[in-house]
Write a structure and sequence with these properties.
This protein is α+β, with helices and mostly antiparallel strands and about 425 residues long. About 40% of the residues lie in helices and about 20% in strands. The termini are far apart. It binds adenosine monophosphate.
């Protein structure tokens, strides 16, 4: 029997050895270049935050807050916590640095370790790395679709072939309260079967039961009689969800409606999503919309949507693959969209540009030609692409040379080829 070492790494935490560094670098570079392409800027927040931030933000009835946080008391008596996720810290920084005064949405990405006292197993650690995205200050469903699109693109770029996007809407408090009543009634009728955690959840935070992985609870969750939240969405939440799905259809991201996807965090409103590689039971990425946190932290009434991708989980899956990827270059092009139909088409067009390694800037949150032209001017791009209702119907797009002022109308199918020649 080998002798026990005097010092060993802490259970659930791991050393990233030199031979594994290349995976971390490759994944980070892919995430960074795709996020930056879509207008996200990097923010680093401290690993330690006030414990109260997570109790309020992540939610005091979540497993993370109740069981999984690494808390410590400083010599000065402050209660601090090693971040179990990025979102509350990023939102704190958004408010603290007055980012509401910037052009919205403020799109931020972060990368680094997070800490959760979970039961260690394959793909589940107590310290693990996440790449995190937050799009703050945008109500439109285009922001939800864009977050999903970015994670999907990251995984596609990393050569994952069969990706499954699971998506749901859990509505707002107003829709959830009606659903909760019916759901609680249903669960009470099955109470004797529920696991002990779910018996507690039934009193404290019943929807979390839908997240339970215990076999006996799974049986209840998968029963066809169980009420589904989607049937209880108010008109606004229903329209928002429909719009997210339409955007996903437009950008040809296949998804699977999962009415039980409530996720382990308290703050979600409307959209929730997770992305899986088909042979993996653990999600590679997950996130959703959270329209109440900024207000809850004392900021304005601003919407936000975000998500995170787990680096170690991706590496586990990547190890069997030989991976190579390329970089994007500085942008000389700005895409202007005018009208809802053009916005939808633009999302897909932008992704085609990315796939062709042509960098393009956009501002989907702006609707007017004037505002978008002024942003294009500020960015100093050489070409502007203009897609309006007429162009969408004619399957064309306008290329405007910002230096000469000359415009040409081209077939939308040929725009990438044309613009590549221009910027050569
Ligand atoms: P979450 O912050 O819970 O939404 O998780 C986002 C992503 O982080 C997941 O899809 C996983 O890829 C990763 N992740 C979550 N928990 C763990 C864990 N305990 N160990 C490793 N990766 C994790």
């Amino acid at each position: 029997m080998s002798k026990k070492l005097k010092f060993q790494r802490i259970t659930g935490m791991h050393d990233i050895l030199p031979q594994d560094q290349k995976y971390f670098e490759k994944i980070y570079n892919t995430c960074k270049s795709i996020a930056e392409f879509y207008g996200f800027s990097k923010i680093d927040t401290p690993i330690l935050e006030e414990t109260e931030l997570f109790i309020k933000g992540t939610g005091d009835t979540t497993d993370i807050v109740q069981k999984e946080m690494y808390n410590l008391k400083t010599k000065g008596g402050d209660s601090l916590t090693l971040r179990p996720e990025f979102t509350p810290g990023v939102i704190r920084a958004y408010i603290e640095h007055g980012m509401k005064n910037l052009i919205q949405p403020v799109k931020l990405y972060s990368y680094g370790p997070v800490f959760r006292y979970e039961k260690p197993q394959t793909g589940r650690y107590r310290q693990f790395y996440q790449f995190n995205l937050e799009s703050i200050g945008e109500k439109n469903a285009v922001a939800d679709a864009q977050i999903i699109q970015i994670f999907y693109s990251i995984l596609s770029e990393l050569k994952f072939k069969k990706l499954i996007v699971k998506i749901n809407s859990i509505g707002e408090n107003r829709c959830r309260s009606n659903y909760k009543k019916v759901f609680i009634k249903y669960c009470q009728s099955k109470q004797s079967i529920l696991c002990s955690d779910c018996k507690r959840r039934l009193k404290e935070n019943p929807l979390r039961i839908l997240d339970c992985k215990e076999e006996k609870c799974q049986k209840i969750i998968n029963d066809s009689q169980i009420p589904q939240i989607i049937d209880y969405l108010c008109e606004e939440c229903h329209a928002h969800f429909k719009s997210v799905l339409e955007f996903l259809d437009e950008i040809e991201i296949p998804y699977f409606l999962d009415p039980y996807l409530v996720r382990g965090l308290d703050y979600y409103t409307k959209t929730t999503f997770e992305i899986f590689a088909d042979n993996n039971k653990n999600a590679l990425a997950g996130g959703g919309r959270y329209d109440n946190m900024i207000k809850l932290f004392g900021g304005d009434d601003r919407s936000a949507v975000g998500g995170a991708i787990g680096i170690e989980r991706i590496i586990l899956e990547m190890k069997n693959l030989d991976i190579k990827f390329s970089e994007t270059k500085d942008s000389q092009i700005f895409l202007i969209q005018l009208g809802e139909l053009a916005k939808k088409k633009s999302l897909k067009l932008l992704e085609s540009f990315r796939k062709n390694k042509v960098s393009v800037l956009e501002s989907f949150s702006q609707d007017s030609l004037k505002a978008q032209l002024s942003m294009a001017n500020k960015a100093g791009v050489k070409y502007v692409l203009i897609l309006g209702q007429k162009e969408v119907l004619d399957k064309t797009i306008i290329i405007k040379n910002m230096e000469s002022g000359q415009q040409e109308i081209v077939d939308i199918e040929k725009v990438i080829e044309k613009i590549k020649k221009h910027i050569k």
